[in-house]
Amino acid sequence: MPSALPPSAKPSHQLLYLIYGKQDVYRREAKFSILTALAQLKQGESLCIRVMTDRPQDFIGWPVETIELDEQTLTQWQGENGYLHRRKACAIAQGLKLADKTLFVDTDTLFLKSPHCVFELIKPGQYVMDEFEYDWRYVCKRPDYLKLGQHLHSHGVSASNSFKLYNSGLCGVCASDTGLLETSIRLIDEWTQGSFDIHTIEQIAISFAMRGKTVRESKKIVHHYYAEKRFFHAMQAHFFSLHGETFGPELVMRCLDVPQVKPVPSAWQRLLIKWKLRKQRKHLKRVGRDLLYGSAAPENPYYDVCRQGWWESASREIRGWDEAEQKQFFGTHGTGWPEQLPRPAKPADEQAIVEYLQKRRA
């Protein structure tokens, strides 16, 4: 089968990850992302994978080269303004020294095709980012962007001559792009002085540094599930509980059994749910949809463990209501199915959903 490339002084390509801290969920994210990258390699392809981490022991036996990060380095990378995601830009900048082409990947990323499909898009003066998100002209007037807008105005940027903002969940650059990352880090430091309202300043800085250059998107090659983590975390926890974390060819192949999309009912079921909820107020429609979507998820062992992801969305919505509205929704005793909503397709789910919502409410 295709394999990871043994560590070398400076390979032509490298897949680069950054992971720190002791949370199991991020370790599983990284390992599962690595498995999908290896599973998508074509016959004869190899891959150099490097992981920058403060816990290299977590990757013993895995076909990766670990670059150990100590607490001093992580603190330094966070910068004087305490901006956590500055570390990503610093990791990419450091990684540039280790390969001709670097593909930095957030841990919450699945490969749908061979990573080499992305490497082919990386060229001097041509970058790869996860996907286009929005144009500055559309967000510059939002309250949380006003302070950043003042900084950009000093660089001559306004709504009339704006630039594209990309999600940096995946970032492909060349060894010659040191200046690009140095500019990005300098902008991050400038834009995070004092308080800052935007947690994505890092990707805005990289996008700004890339303005005027060719940027290609990778969204058809990878799936960056940053907005759907609750579903994939449940599936990945189930995967590793079944198969363990000891690396082997079998683990690579088994990762393909895990769905690459969140559980969504069939088109017919979605239409039926929409019809049943047609007379409800908007906020009840959202709650009803999420509860019924979880119950009507397609049959799959991995979807069975993440139906609560839908129910959690409904729970968050309910917890945002005032106390009187919550009491009306749950009824006097709070143990029966809410009268305002149609019942789920699976009768056994009624009690399971009510218990879940009450537990989260408490």
What's the layout of helices and strands?
Layout: E1 3-4, E2 13-19, H1 24-39, E3 46-47, E4 49-53, E5 65-68, H2 71-78, H3 86-95, E6 101-105, E7 109-111, H4 116-119, E8 126-135, H5 136-139, H6 146-154, E9 164-174, H7 178-191, H8 201-209, E10 214-217, E11 222-224, H9 229-243, H10 249-254, H11 267-276, H12 282-295, H13 301-304, H14 308-319, H15 323-330, H16 348-361
Parallel strand pairs: 1-3, 2-4, 2-6, 4-5, 8-10
Antiparallel strand pairs: 6-9, 7-11, 8-9
Write structural notes for this entry.
By secondary structure, this protein is α/β, with parallel strands linked by helices. The protein has 16 helices and 11 strands. The chain is globular. The strands form 3 sheets. A 7-stranded mixed sheet has the order 5-4-2-6-9-8-10, sandwiched between helices. A two-stranded parallel sheet has the order 1-3. The protein has 2 domains: 3-224, Spore Coat Polysaccharide Biosynthesis Protein SpsA, Chain A; 263-361, no CATH class. The mean pLDDT is 92.
